[in-house]
Amino acid sequence: MLITVLGFYGGYPHNGIGTSGYLLRDDNFNVLIDCGSGVLNVLSNYLDPTDLDAVVLSHYHHDHTADLGVLQYNWLAADKDQPLPIYGHTQDFVNFAQLTEGDATKGIAYNDYEPTNIGPFKFEFLRTIHPVPAYAMRITKGDETIVYTADTTYFDGLVDFAKGADLLITDTNFPEEVTGRKWHMNTKESGTLAKDAGVKRMMISHLPQNYKKQTLLEQSQKYAGDIPVIRAFQGLEVQV
Ligand SMILES: [Zn+2]
Ligand SMILES: [Zn+2]
């Protein structure tokens, strides 16, 4: 599996860099995971967006869906034979209904009690703790696994869900000094999660705009111990 970071900021885009979006490719199958602000533009550097095979959305916050409407217009204009499948949860029917746009795109429900096969990938979902329903994803192909926490407060269930992953992508929106009630993890929680879950590698993502990224990386690494930590940047490609 090859995963490419298209955007990594939390909340809003900044200085030409967008919010959450990851392109997952293998066996000639292209999946876009989250479709944040600025993602469609960057995606088109890699492939024609109408060559996507599926989109999977973790939740319906704008920083994960802002470019969905224009992606749907792109598909409407292309007038393809088959609609683009867009996978989303149904805990919010208004937003789920908007995944279907005429014959261009089609909303497909996922849930957290059975896996969903999308092309060559098996997706498993875990409801996270966030102000709106959101789902972490465990993506498996053959022996390889990628886990994406999506947006979440730290909770113990993440450790089991991420167990042994080859790559863990975490919502690391805060430095370690930000504690207390919050809807994302800080560097300490991300690093500790990587260590407790025994993952092979961790990527910190969903980063804040106004904090030194090198410091976020160093803080996360301190808590992750021996587990190599990398930080997301636009265009970063990781082969798993
Ligand atoms: Zn977010
Ligand atoms: Zn969110």
Summarize the structure.
Residues 18-206 form the Metallo-beta-lactamase domain. The chain has 240 residues and is α/β, with parallel strands linked by helices. Helix content is 22%, strand content 30%.
Structural description of this entry:
This protein is an alpha/beta fold and 240 residues long. The protein has a single domain, classed as Ribonuclease Z/Hydroxyacylglutathione hydrolase-like (Metallo-beta-lactamase, Chain A). Helices cover 22% and strands 30% of the residues. The protein contains seven helices and 15 strands. It has helices at 39-43, 62-65, 68-78, 93-97, 157-162, 187-197, 213-224, and strands at residues 2-7, 21-26, 29-33, 54-56, 84-88, 105-109, 116-118, 121-127, 135-141, 144-148, 167-174, 185-186, 202-205, 229-231, 237-239. The strands form two sheets. Strands 7, 8, 9, 10, 11, 12, 13 and 14 form an eight-stranded mixed β-sheet that branches. The chain has a seven-stranded mixed β-sheet with strand order 6-5-4-3-2-1-15. α4 (93-97) links the parallel β5 and β6 (105-109). The structure holds zinc ion (2 copies). One zinc ion binds next to α2.
From the structure above, extract its key features:
alpha/beta; Metallo-beta-lactamase, Chain A; eight-stranded mixed β-sheet; 15 strands; globular; hydrolase; RibonucZ/Hydroxyglut_hydro; Metallo-B-lactamas; Beta-lactamase superfamily hydrolase; zinc
